[in-house]
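User:
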Amino acid sequence: GKTLFLEKSAALVNLVSYPIYRQQLIEGIAQTIGQNITQVEKAIEQNITNNTQPYNANEFEQANIVNHSFQAKSRNASSSSMKSLMSRMISCVINYPSLVNDPETSSVIEERARKLPKSDVLVELIRYIQVESDLSKEALLLPYKSKERIYKRLQELSVMEPFLSEYEAKEEFGYALTSAEKYYERKTTKASILSAKTHDEEKAVMQKIIKSKMKSVNQKNPNPQTEE
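Assistant: Predicted structure:
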């Protein structure tokens, strides 16, 4: 948990240009994870080095690379990664409607999907399935027949390649949904940082981010071991 927290924080600190606030953030990170400032500074320097080196990864993997620089991502790469994740989720839903038709989880899944950008088709499919649980693939796609481009794409996604069992599709859907949420969170975080027009605004944004990450670490480690 600490390593992941440090890697993510390093990428964000590298976006802060004002020396005083940058140093305050470094000190706050060091205190949070119980490391000295020198170790944190080295991790940040390593983050810069790593993100100046080119790498090859497919679109699906790009959505889950944790140690990355927001500024190193092009808009096209970001868009393609989110599209890839959305396509995988839609394919899973079309082939296995039962994934989103569990009374105990369907409303939560719909809510999570609705918060993602350009998720209209996915959310609509989920709602159709909730209303009509025994729809065939053809019936599920029928409402889109008048929308030629969308209908054609959904037909392509109805052929699952590679083929997954229902269990594998459930795992794939959950993985893609969580990855899309994290990807979108990183994107909105970047937008918040870049929209800060003054040093005070920049500081406020970064403090909010650090506070959120501290909360996340505490949730993962609710009962940390203390050294005697």
